[in-house]
Structures are given as structure tokens and as C-alpha cells.
Here is the input.
Amino acid sequence: MQIEDLANELVLHVFQSCTSVEDVLSLASTSRHFRTIFGASQRLPLLYQAAEAEYGPLTEAIQIATHNSSQAAHIVRKVPLSLALLKQVLKIGAAAKKWEDIYPSKKWKDAFENRRLLTTEERYRLRRAIYRLWLYSKAFHNTRYTRLTRTHKHIVLERAELLHNWTTPELAEVEDVRAIIRDVLRNQICPSNGTIQRKFRKRHPDSEQQLLFNIHLNYPPPVSSTFPQHYYTTHQISSSARFFPGDVKSAYSMKYTSTPHHEPGGEGWGDDIPHYYIIEDMAKLDPGQIIWLKENAPLKGMVECFVNEMGDSFKNNGETFGQTLEWVLQERGEDVEEMRNAILEEEIGVTC
Here is the structure.
């Protein structure tokens, strides 16, 4: 018997067994009979079921896609399913899924003998933590919450309400993921002068060149030029990146190479205190923006342009999740440093 001769109920069961949206669409395109079954009333349920298996928990991703300032972030929104919503959720899920490959290399960066792939359950917890951190960033890291109001009690309580939705082990998962994201920011997107120096010497061990580091502005004025489109915004490219229009691979290869038009030391973001505050600012970006910068903005000038389009309120106004987490844990009679130590020991977190 050929598969096309199967009863519709069995074909539907095959559709329901697919674990990715791509599998569902591929199966539907194999024959006119399958496409007829898929195109009936089962289309949306099948797509959402496959998306749940691939990118779940979708409930958390939907909160990101449907959030707006008219409703408090801690209120769980239940919305009707649609193809338009699914497209947004798939875009968010695809960005979250990329962190599944990054997490092991950063989590066990030093203890590389323990490095391994994440289990299915760990991947689920990782995506859930990514979605929750993303929602927090979208809700509270914006122009409505300025540096001068971040410590006002009613603002802190508003932020804490969202964290109250999650148990302490779930908050540990978010904190675990947040540490990984900060590592990416600190070493890849906004590396310190020391990191640039170390990587340059590793690539050019015989070079006697002394790198020239910029110790002044980390946020120079923007310049006019086009830059590839991100999820919702078109960004611009600054002067230090204009030599690589549309060629990210060339930019990566030239980052640590000295040329008449490029000084590797200019890729550094400062050291010690200045670098710390830069990372605090950049940590306000959501996980989708950060993964996009990692893949598409290898040069400092590219990142600076991205930041300049965030507006002046983005600068000198660090992230607030850590402060809010400490507040919530104190309410529960727990200590944030004990949680972080437990995450390092893998007693709690994504891989506990």
C-alpha cells in the first residue's frame, strides 16, 4: 500500500507526529491529497502543534508578540490563533533556538570536558528562559523607563510583578541564561580592549604591532549609510564599517587585521569600569537583538550604529533585571548570590 492510499485519519496522525513546521509544510507539498487534508480545518492546529514541538513553550513566545504598553506585562494574554501571529512567533522562536547551540560552549567554556549537547528538556527550559527575559526586556527596557526613575519604588514593584509569575527555580533558569548572554556581549559583541589585545596576539603571534585603543567616546555620532534590516527596525552602518558593505564575512576576517583603513585596537570597548557600564547598557537588548548583532555586526562601528538608533535614553541607563531579581528573592527570603553560586554548581538552572 502506498502512503497516499492511507485513510485520512492515518494521514492526519502522520501530520500530528511532525516535530517542526518545515516538516508539516513539506509533507503537505508531497501530493494533492495531502495538501487537501492539510488545507482543511486542521491547518492552523497542525502548524501550531508543530511549532510547539520545535519552539515551545509557545505561550511564552505569544506574550512577547502580543505585548504592548496598554496592558501590564505580568498579565498573561490569551489571544486567538492566526497565521499572522504564528509568523511572529516563529521569528521569535527561531532566534531563541539559536541560543541552544551557543549555551553549551559558553556554559562549559572552562570545564570543556563536561561540554555536551542539551537534552530535549533542557532545550525547552532554555527557550522558556529566553522568552521570559525577552518579555522583560520588551516591557521595561524602553523609553518609558528612564535612568532617573529606575529606583522609584512603584517602578520596582511594577517590574517585580512580572517576576512574581515565576517560581524561584524558573528565575534561576532566566539568571543562568542571562549570564550566558552577558558573556556573548562581553567577549564577542562588545569586547574589552584586553580581549581585543589577546585575540590579536593569538592570531598574529609574531607581530610587534602595538594596538591603538580609543579611550574616549564609545558612542560617536551616527553617520548616514544603509545597514541590513533587523526584526522591526532599519539600522545604519558607521564609518569604521563602511568598507564592508553587505559583506559580513569580510568584516569578520578583517576585524583583527591591521590595514590603512582599519585599526584592530579601535574595536575595543574600553576596560574595567567603562567597559562594565557599556555591558550594562547593552544588556537591555533583547535576546533576538543580541543574536542578530552577533551574526551581522562584527565591527564596533556596526554595533555603535545599532545603539545610536536606540536614542539617547539607551545610553548610561543599565539593565534592571538583576536589581529586580534581587528584590524578588529578598521578598522570598532568599539570597541572589547563593542562587548564582548554585547555578555555577549546576544545582539549579537550565542544566540542573
Summary: The first helix runs from residue 8 to 16.
